[in-house]
């Protein structure tokens, strides 16, 4: 008899590429013989995955900027999703966690009312917005959870550091690649024209939500040295600030007089345009000071792009230095500028790194493997031994 799983996720395609993760997870589970139902919002289009049951009970939860109406849509969407999943025989309720709150707790209580088992995939172990704001919710949520999935040993150890009694619940399962969902553009000139980039020089890409922990300020401060080595270099910044003020970065740009070398697309990047940003770039830089797992890294490697990374433990569990990516000393401006210069001045090495990174995605981070690992984690829940 198949395990029936309800993946309940109100976020979906809102503001990021998270829906591709959901679709990849669903594909992997279905290929492993799991019956999967996905519950999300109406902005997230049906991916038409064979055997996937797809529902949009959260409707247009993000359409209005009224917190009260959004809360009502969340509550009603959760109630309908859980009741529908229960009616259809789902025994496992799987959630993706980017922060701990009373709304997450509400969903879990619904799952318990439905006599279901709870599985969490923890994306951000501690919220980057306010890591101390949800301690009570966090303890309750972990207590109610039957199985916790996290993307690497670094995240696992971070959880155990604050919650020593739940180690037995945790399984480490990697973030999958984006290969099933991306279209690789091959004409750099056309892609640059498509996104309004008028240059024949080298392009460095900083992509994704702009957060303080992503250290865009460090990259900006490293740019004068990079520009000295190559006056035709362009830094393309593409993404929307998240609980951050871009005026602080604009001030740095102005003070360093590097505006002519910066192209700013400070907004949400439509999904159909993402491939053009990657095709237009020669190097992707992730100068983060803290991360648990990076979708931008997995996306960059899936597009076959060379990447410069801060030497954080979470990154080291995915790639090797000078094999799949380039590492610099986290927080060190000179180290960052030196590595960028070295990478851009080594075209053969740059191509080799890009090729190795793509091969790594294809061979080690397939959703087929991840689906099998996730099913195995489900089977460790006591319910399935009864």
Keywords:
386 residues; alpha/beta; Rossmann fold; 2 domains; 7-stranded parallel sheet; 6-stranded parallel sheet; 14 helices
Q: Remind me, CATH topology of the largest domain?
A: Rossmann fold
Beta-strand content:
5-15%
CATH C-level name of the largest domain: Alpha Beta
Mean pLDDT: 92
* Widest sheet: strand ordering: 3-2-1-4-5-6-7
User: In percent, how helical is the residue content?
Assistant: 40-55%
> Which architecture of the largest domain per CATH?
3-Layer(aba) Sandwich
Number of strands: 13
Domains counted in the coordinates: how many? 2
Class from secondary-structure proportions = alpha/beta
Largest sheet: 7 strands, parallel
Number of helices: 14
The separation of the N and C termini measures 13 Å
Low-confidence stretches: none
Write a short abstract of this structure.
Helix content is 42%, strand content 15%. The protein is α/β, with parallel strands linked by helices and 386 residues long. The chain starts with a strand and ends in a 7-residue tail after the last helix.
What does this structure look like?
This protein has two domains: 4-176 and 366-385, 3-Layer(aba) Sandwich (Rossmann fold); 180-364, Rossmann fold (3-Layer(aba) Sandwich). It is α/β, with parallel strands linked by helices. The chain is globular and about 65 Å long. The strands form two sheets. The protein has a seven-stranded parallel sheet with strand order 3-2-1-4-5-6-7, with helices on both faces. Strands 10-9-8-11-12-13 form a six-stranded parallel sheet, sandwiched between helices. Helix 7 (216-229) links the parallel strand 8 (203-207) and strand 9 (234-238). Helix 2 (67-87) runs parallel beside helix 3 (102-113). The longest helix is centred in the first third of the chain and has 21 residues, at 67-87. The protein is 42% helix and 15% strand. The mean pLDDT is 92. It has helices at residues 18-31, 67-87, 102-113, 135-144, 153-162, 188-194, 216-229, 247-255, 271-280, 295-302, 313-316, 333-344, 347-364, 367-379, and strands spanning 4-8, 35-39, 53-55, 92-97, 117-122, 147-150, 170-172, 203-207, 234-238, 262-265, 283-286, 307-310, 326-328. The protein is built from 14 helices and 13 strands.
């Amino acid at each position: 008899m198949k395990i029936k799983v309800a993946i309940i996720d109100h976020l979906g395609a809102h503001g990021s590429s998270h829906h591709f993760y959901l679709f990849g997870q669903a594909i992997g589970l279905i290929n492993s013989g799991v019956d999967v139902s996905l519950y999300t919002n109406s902005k997230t289009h049906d991916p038409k995955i064979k055997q996937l049951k797809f529902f949009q009970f959260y409707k247009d939860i993000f359409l209005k900027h009224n917190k009260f109406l959004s809360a009502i849509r969340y509550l009603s969407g959760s109630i309908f999703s859980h009741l529908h999943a229960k009616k259809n025989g789902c025994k496992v309720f799987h959630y993706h966690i980017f922060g701990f709150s009373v709304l997450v707790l509400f969903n879990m209580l619904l799952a318990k009312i439905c006599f279901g088992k709870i599985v969490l995939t923890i994306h951000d172990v501690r919220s980057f917005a306010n890591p101390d704001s949800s301690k009570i919710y966090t303890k309750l949520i972990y207590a109610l959870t039957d199985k916790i999935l996290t993307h690497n040993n670094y995240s696992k150890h971070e959880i155990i550091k604050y919650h020593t009694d739940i180690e037995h619940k945790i399984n480490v399962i990697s973030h999958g690649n984006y290969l099933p969902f991306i279209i690789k553009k091959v004409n750099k000139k056309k892609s640059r024209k498509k996104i309004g980039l008028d240059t024949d020089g080298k392009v460095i890409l900083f992509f994704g939500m702009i957060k303080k922990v992503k250290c865009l300020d460090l990259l900006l401060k490293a740019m004068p040295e990079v520009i000295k080595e190559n006056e035709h270099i362009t830094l393309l910044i593409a993404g929307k600030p998240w609980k951050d003020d871009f005026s602080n970065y604009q001030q740095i740009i102005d003070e360093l007089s590097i505006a002519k070398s910066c192209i700013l697309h400070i907004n949400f990047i439509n999904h159909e345009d993402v491939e053009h940003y990657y095709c237009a770039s020669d190097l992707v830089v992730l100068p983060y000071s803290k991360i648990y797992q990076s979708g931008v890294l997995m996306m960059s490697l899936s597009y076959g792009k060379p990447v410069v990374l801060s030497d954080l433990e979470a990154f080291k569990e995915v790639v090797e230095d000078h094999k799949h990516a380039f590492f610099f000393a986290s927080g060190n401006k000179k180290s960052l500028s030196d590595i960028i210069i070295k990478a851009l001045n080594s075209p053969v090495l740059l191509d080799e790194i890009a090729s190795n990174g793509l091969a790594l995605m294809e061979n080690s981070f397939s959703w087929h493997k991840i689906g099998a690992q996730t099913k195995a984690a489900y089977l460790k829940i006591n319910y399935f031994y009864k």
